[in-house]
Structures are given as C-alpha cells and as structure tokens.
Write a structure and sequence with these properties.
The chain has a single domain, classed as Jelly Rolls. Helix content is 11%, strand content 45%. It has three helices and 14 strands. Strands 1, 2, 3, 4, 5, 6, 7, 8, 9, 10, 11, 12, 13 and 14 form a 14-stranded antiparallel β-sheet that branches.
Length: 274
C-alpha cells in the first residue's frame, strides 16, 4: 500500500464537507475527552481482571524499557516499542516510528466466537501527518484466513480543499474491495490528548463500528455493501491476528517521526466500555 489508488481517492472525496470544521470539532471533543479520561483513570487498572476477555494488556506488570512478552509478539520496521511511565505513574506502551515505518504489538493465534469481537484501547498520538496529500495511517489491523486486511482504526490526511486536516476512518486493503479508508470530516484525528477508542467487528454483515470516548460514530461504520472501496462485497477474513501500534505508508511524510502511546488494550466477545 505505497500509493493511493484513484478509486479510493474518489470514494473519500464524495464525503460531504459541510460538517463541523475540524478545529471546532476538536475543541468540543477535547473537553468531553478530558472528562471521560479523568473519570475512567482508575478503570483501566481493573480491565484485565474482568472475566471472559479474549486478550488484555495494561502493561502494569511489565518492566520499563524494551517491550516484550510471552503473550504477544512484535512487528517493527524502522520502529520500536517501549514501556514507560505515564504522567500519572502508570505504565504505558510507547510506539515510535521513523518515516513510513511501522511498530505493532501483535496478538497471534487469536480466535473470536463467531469471528466477531469488540476491542478497546486508550491512545494518544503525538502528531498526525500533514504531508504528503492523502497520507494514510493505521493504528489497529485485523488479518487472517482471507484476502482482506481489515483496519478498524486508522485515518488519512485530506489536503485542502478537502479539509486540510487528518481524519479517523475505517479501512481495508489487499482484497477485492481494494485500498480504501472511509474517513469523515466529523471525526478529526486530534493529536496530543488521550482518547478511548472502541470498535466492533461483526461478521454477521461484515460490519465495523467505532466509538470515541464512549460516543458512537455511525458515519464511520462500514459493512458488506456500504464501504469505501470497489463496488463488490466486503467480507472479513477468518481473524487470527490483531495488531495495535502505528504504520504510515507514504514516504517522506511530515513530520518525519511519530510517537504514539497506548494503554488498557482489551479484546472481548462483549463490549468492554471506557
């Protein structure tokens, strides 16, 4: 996924641009996010004690330094994963990449009942790309037996006059639907603050849904026939690998380096919540 196909560009440009401007949306969501983050600060430590989780990692039992675990793997190229202490003293995962590198925590041998599952992660991104045009990034990726690479959390920088900002979106690549990201200007990617992101992959109709700080974003939802790619069915693979971290696909981006912090990762057959 080194270039942006013309079809995918056309699909995202069809998004109405009469929505709330990125700056005002960011200001409104920032206040709500700060409240949500502070009210749930202690909840994260209890997440991994919940019954029935398919996977959980809060990094509290890990030593500070290079990140490694017997429960998950690492996938990096021009990137690193480290565990460090956050501002409140809790441990978090720091994801660092150079240029269009990648660095992911990788959950292997993953199996969800009915091939459907919920996910939750708290995330803070130091900066989103502002060049080149249509620069595309991924934070969560799900793969398995089947051609589609499903990206329930990612986004894209839309240059002027299409917004001049980075926006969250669901995407896919590698399968018959092509290379696409279903971003919306009502979902700006705001740097520098913690956000609790939840997603649901529902194999019943190949539906991907998102929540930010507990608020649903239905405009980002994709499904079998409603997505941002080629006019064919979008069909999940049989999931067996989930990756969380950062990857940027275009060369010579601005900025040239990226730092992302993640905490309280959970995968479950039921919604975990923020």
């Amino acid at each position: 996924m080194r270039t942006w196909p013309a079809r995918a560009v056309v699909s995202v440009l069809l998004v109405p641009l009469t929505a709330v401007p990125a700056a005002s949306a960011a200001a409104a969501s920032s206040a709500a996010s700060s409240s949500a983050a502070s009210s749930s600060a202690g909840a994260g430590a209890r997440t991994c004690a919940q019954a029935g989780l398919l996977f959980c990692e809060d990094f509290q039992a890990m030593p500070v330094g290079g990140a490694a675990s017997l429960r998950w793997g690492v996938d990096t190229k021009h990137g690193t994963l480290t565990v460090e202490r956050g501002r409140r003293g809790q441990k978090v995962l720091r994801v660092h990449t150079e240029g269009n590198g990648r660095a992911f925590l990788k959950v292997d041998d993953f199996a969800a009942p009915g091939n459907s599952f919920y996910g939750r992660v708290r995330v803070r991104v130091g900066a989103f790309p502002s060049a080149p045009a249509w620069a595309h990034y991924t934070l969560v990726e799900a793969t398995g037996d089947g051609p589609e690479i499903v990206r329930p959390l990612g986004g894209q920088y839309a240059p002027p006059p299409h917004g001049g900002a980075a926006y969250w979106g669901v995407g896919a690549d590698g399968g018959p639907t092509g290379d696409w990201t279903n971003w919306r200007p009502t979902a700006p990617s705001v740097a520098g603050r913690w956000t609790c992101v939840e997603w649901h992959l529902d194999a019943g109709d190949n539906r991907v849904s998102l929540w930010f700080d507990g608020v649903a974003k239905p405009e980002l939802t994709v499904s079998t026939r409603e997505h941002g790619g080629n006019p064919v069915d979008f069909v999940f693979p049989r999931f067996d690998t989930i990756k969380l971290g950062w990857q940027l696909y275009q060369a010579d981006p601005t900025p040239a380096r990226y730092d992302v912090w993640m905490d309280d990762i959970a995968l479950s057959s039921r919604r975990v919540g923020c």
